[in-house]
Specification:
- The protein is of the alpha/beta class.
- It has two domains: 4-237, P-loop containing nucleotide triphosphate hydrolases (Rossmann fold, 3-Layer(aba) Sandwich); 251-316.
- Helix content is 48%, strand content 19%.
- Helix 3 packs across helix 4 (113-126), helix 3 runs parallel beside helix 5 (142-154) and helix 11 runs antiparallel to helix 12 (290-304).
- The protein is globular.
- The structure holds adenosine-5'-diphosphate (ADP) and magnesium ion.
Length: 318
């Protein structure tokens, strides 16, 4: 048995209008790896991802998933292993309720209605979407739709999770939640994104695609700190990396930009912090540790009042 879970060998694909989207793409992804796919718009990322589960079939070259060569006959089997989450959740959700959408895949795999309902509970629980079960998907917010689209795929328990631009419609909180969710998965993960900070947080390896071919492939930390390589591909250093290089060079502007980003982050979490100080204060009180309880209450109050200061500091960065 091969330990390469996904292998592309010299894959070519041309759309019906003649656009050559993949031009000899070759790569190997090993079991358990988490791989970021980056590149300019139109470089072929989505076309590549749509080949991983046979949504598109190569016109020349070969693809192997697990032990199966991908072709018209095997693609149904391969879809059980590879869960592809499209960029736009509206392309994924088409049933009258969230429950039906998430149950659709498991029922298609031949599970009984009871088993499928169990999978729905589990998958919605993982993405924090249980309360949405009976809602029509078109009534959900962007972030909720993304969560349900992810649930509809993980309900099939795929070996490989493939996501196209997962963060593009998410607000910062939902994006942070998604990063935690992805980091909790033990699947093989392949994630295309312009959000290089997300790639850096989730992936140990990063592949740069240019003109439908692999242009660079290596540890995410190395690829995503290569400013020249990123610029050539219309990308910018991740914010966290911008901070790091600016410290080296002592560049002031980048430091301020990083600080503004950090302050936004501190502000976003400030009330949460205050809440946990308060909760720990209550626990300390209940345990009879009254001095500790009163100190934590004081800390919680002063923290809660700091939002305005953070906001002023954020403004002062401009
Ligand atoms: N359905 C399609 N028909 C024709 N050309 C397409 C289609 N989808 C994508 N393309 C073209 O194929 C190339 C690769 O696109 P895509 O894989 O979507 O790139 P990316 O996801 O990196 O932005 C681009 O030139 C794009 O315009
Ligand atoms: Mg794309």
């Amino acid at each position: 048995m091969s330990h390469h879970i996904v292998e592309f060998r010299d894959v070519h694909y041309r759309y019906p209008d003649g656009t050559a989207a993949l031009n000899g793409l070759s790569l190997r992804i090993t079991h358990g790896e988490s791989v970021g796919i980056v590149g300019a718009n139109g470089s072929g990322k989505s076309t590549f991802l749509m080949h991983t589960n046979g949504y598109l079939l190569p016109q020349s070259g070969g693809i192997t998933v697990g032990d199966l060569p991908l072709n018209r006959q095997t693609r149904q089997e391969i879809r059980k292993k590879v869960g592809l989450i499209f960029q736009n959740p509206d392309d994924q959700l088409f049933m009258p309720t969230v429950f039906d959408d998430v149950a659709f895949g498991p029922l298609n795999l031949g599970l009984s209605p009871e088993e499928a309902a169990g999978r729905v509970e589990e998958a919605l629980g993982i993405v924090g979407g249980l309360a949405l079960k009976n809602k029509p998907p078109h009534h959900l917010s962007g972030g909720q739709k993304s969560a349900v689209a992810i649930a509809s795929v993980i309900a099939m328990k795929p070996d490989i999770l493939v996501m196209d631009e997962p963060a593009s419609s998410l607000d910062p909180k939902a994006r942070r939640y998604l990063i935690e969710l992805l980091n909790d998965f033990e699947h093989t993960k392949i994630i295309a994104s312009h959000d290089l900070d997300l790639i850096l947080d989730v992936c140990e390896r990063c592949i740069v695609i240019k003109d439908g071919r692999v242009m660079a492939d290596g540890p995410a930390g190395t690829i995503l700190s290569d400013k020249a390589l990123l610029e050539e591909n219309h990308l910018e250093l991740p914010l966290t990396m911008q901070g790091r290089t600016s410290y080296k060079k002592g560049g002031r502007m980048n430091d301020i930009e990083k600080l503004r980003h950090l302050i936004g982050h501190w502000l976003e979490h400030n009330q949460e912090h205050a809440k946990s100080y308060r909760e720990w204060g209550e626990k300390a009180g209940a345990a009879g540790r009254h001095e500790l309880a009163s100190l934590l209450r004081e800390i919680a109050e002063r923290t809660a009042a700091m939002d305005e200061l953070f906001r002023q500091a954020e403004k002062a960065c401009k």
